[in-house]
Amino acid sequence: MLLRRVFQFFVIYFLFILGLMALKYSLNLSDYVIPAPSGIFQTLVVEYRQYSIATINTMTVAIIGQILSVIMAFVIGITGRQSTWLGSFIKVAAYNIQAYPIVALAPILFILLGDGFLTRLLIAAMICYFPVLLSVLGIMSKPIDDIEHFYRVTNRMRWQLEVKIRTFENLTQLTTVVAGSATLAVAGTIVAEFIAANAGIGYNIRIALYQSDLSKILIALFLIGITVAVYQALLELLGTAIKRAWTGR
Amino acid sequence: MSLLCKNIAFTYSGAENPIFADVSFHLSAPGFHSFSGPSGVGKTSLAKIIAGDITSYSGEVSTNGLQTILYSHNKERLPGWSNVDRHLNQVILPSMRSQKDELIKIFGLSDCIKSRFDQLSMGQQNRVNLIRYLLQDCEVLIMDESMSNVDESTRENIILAIKAMFPHRYFIYISHNVMEVAKFCDSILVFRTNGKASPVVMIKGCNIGKGEILSPAALDATLLEIMNAS
């Protein structure tokens, strides 16, 4: 799974580079617009250390943000699954708030909290949170009647058992949602860094943008892509291990 | 203790005509009773009305002294995170453990009791589901096709064992197997197809127990009565 993910990323990335090169040489564009392969390689050699550290910085924020948002989504999703007024309120609120582009709130957070770690973390968590919440709400609100019936009619149904049944029956969907949310958390962090932060790979991309240095941007994209591919593959492996341990298959 | 239904009528939401109307019957003694009739006449709906799962009906259901009525059906599943034996132990009273072991043996499940539910055949799944309902503290157990996909001889053994082990309980057995219903049930509520004067007819079954021999003439007579009624 891990190797396949990395391989898939390499294929896509180098196809993209090939496309750029085709464009460069067919339109006879200068190295200033699209750098030559040798220029990109040279930038890699010069910048890989700094960019790797920046990528790790970004990933740290993204992972913490993702963990926070997944925990929060499960807590709220489990509370909101009920058909009580609180559950209905949570569902309506979640559906309405998620429709708002969270990234548009980023400047407010930067104004209020500054451009440090906390702001990036909040933006990453917020961007990741709502899609996970909607999935968890959808899964937790849907009864598994053919299993739950017995526990209901014999008065054995407790909320913990209900959550356990619904989680177990939708394990594949939930692990896919959690693995997929990693991309959202990384995107959120990079967007935050892009807007106003003072660290991370998004911040480095912003500087490269001001310098109009496409080589640096391509190297940054490579490092982000490979890291996210590895992280997602690890999450999928974790999901598979949990599934195997729980279902015995 | 008895179960009395008076003038029960039920219409599915959005439907123009009731699925059944004016259904009345009385089960005055514990034992094996049955709802019989072709598909779609409302056997399951009536069972759900009695169990309290459907509340939007007209008429009256009196469960005089019958505190707990359970409805089980053949599409139920056990959770898949542990084996069947562990699930059963979690949902039965410790005092019923010996009965559980006996039922497992009679139901022919000894070899697969340590398997997970989804590893069992459909017939085995239905039998496991039935065991957990039998071991609940209830006065009425409705078994809606609860033994489908189970072979005939095992089914017979199961019914006879249930009748012997739970003589004070009301069972309502919903099945399309007319022969089985005629043979083992005390009373049979036959649902009639549209156009008949009364929507249901109560017929006396042969109600044979363990070790009893059924005369072919009695069985033929009951079968004929069911045929005529439906």
Overall 3D shape of chain A: elongated
Number of helices of chain B: 7
- The CATH superfamily of chain B turns out to be P-loop containing nucleotide triphosphate hydrolases
Number of helices of chain A: 10
**Helicity range of the residues of chain B?**
25-40%
CATH architecture designation of chain B: 3-Layer(aba) Sandwich
Distance linking N and C termini of chain A = 17 Å
Average pLDDT confidence of chain A is: 88
What's the quaternary structure here?
Answer: heterodimer
Structural class of chain A: mainly alpha
Q: Characterize the main sheet of chain A.
A: none
Order of helices and strands of chain B: EEEHEEHHHEHEHEEH
Secondary-structure element string of chain A:
HHHHHHHHHH
CATH class group of chain A: Mainly Alpha
Side by side, the strands of the main sheet of chain B go 5-6-7-3-8-9
Descriptive overview:
The complex is a heterodimer of chains A (249) and B (230). With 249 residues, chain A is an all-alpha fold. Chain A has helices at residues 2-27, 37-80, 85-98, 106-113, 117-141, 145-153, 159-169, 171-195, 201-210, 214-247. Chain A has one domain: MetI-like fold (Orthogonal Bundle). By secondary structure, chain B is an alpha/beta fold. Chain B has one domain: P-loop containing nucleotide triphosphate hydrolases (Rossmann fold), CATH 3.40.50.300. Chain B has helices spanning 43-51, 84-91, 97-106, 122-134, 152-165, 178-184, 216-229, and strands at residues 2-10, 20-27, 31-36, 58-64, 69-73, 140-144, 170-174, 187-191, 200-204. The model of chain B has no long low-confidence stretch (mean pLDDT 91). Classes of the chains: A mainly alpha (249), B alpha/beta (230). Chains A and B meet through helix 6 and helix 7 of A and strand 5 and helix 4 of B.
